[in-house]
Design a protein that fits this description.
55% helix, single chain, alpha+beta, globular, 3 strands
Amino acid sequence: MLRTPAGDRRLDILEWLKDPAAHFPPERHADPVEDGVTARAVAAKLGVSRRAADTHLGLLTRIGLLQAKRIRRRTYYRRDEVRIAEVARMFEKGWQGHLRP
């Protein structure tokens, strides 16, 4: 999922959301750090349509790397740090198991 050109974009999104205030403009009704950022903001940063950004964000949310939160009529996305740490540990354990003779 992350080893494709689309995967590179998803990795960019995850990286930007580590520090959303540094990568996205302020939102009118939400704090980018506490609440997250909209698909519109991600689309603008990626230079893609909102629909394409929605696809990336939807996938990252479904696999648990992002959390979605509704505020008024918009959905805001932020990293799920606990889940990201769990996934990183799973990969680390898997790689260690393959490195042993």
